[in-house]
């Protein structure tokens, strides 16, 4: 399986550090966080995409996934007025365009909080409307759209393998697929491996990290409470050949290179 670096923890560093460190530490690819100052989609459209392409070529490290910043800052297609929803959808379409231009295989999105007054019916009507529009764009440009389930600390919309399976039942498309960030199932006492059983060929990608079992905190792999060694054994047992991004976010923002190095070394040790 391929191991990738997630880049939001580098947002206080020059963007070139991301590519330099991914190469130095032995990552196979980059999953690029799409927020300022590095890779905000409108900035890329205004000319910033050129730097991304240059860094990909210079360090020979591909960006295979693009994860635009959304879900409240300021974009969240699950809450607010129809004008706000439309603006969020257009932003994500632009994000897919930029991901395609930089050579990424997929754009990764999740479903933000819909607010405390939204009913289940209202949530699902808005979710499916929005994902249909995004999927149509993905089909148009021939680019994968990956949907991630979140923890209940983050969202009241898509939080489980069952939620993802229902999305794929309602919107059948080869360009709409899913993934497993292993923290949401762990904190909800849901089976991580059930994602593979329930999603089948739609199980396209993973975010791997550790966790304390009581929050959405992303902890250095091997230094939390999760049975990661045993999970790695199971992934080898089922011959998982997909991508696995180590999703260090901002807990280690003060020294991202120290922790990016430690994270991949820990994962490689767990895979032995």
Automatic annotation (TrEMBL):
It is an enzyme of class 5 (isomerase). Its EC number is 5.3.1.-. It comes from the Bacteria. InterPro entries: IolE/XylAMocC-like, Xyl_isomerase-like_sf, Xyl_isomerase-like_TIM-brl. The keyword NADP does not apply. One of its GO terms (molecular function) is isomerase activity. Residues 19-268 form the Xylose isomerase-like TIM barrel domain. Keywords: Isomerase. PANTHER family: HYDROXYPYRUVATE ISOMERASE (PTHR12110), XYLOSE ISOMERASE-LIKE TIM BARREL DOMAIN-CONTAINING PROTEIN (PTHR12110:SF21). This is D-tagatose 3-epimerase.
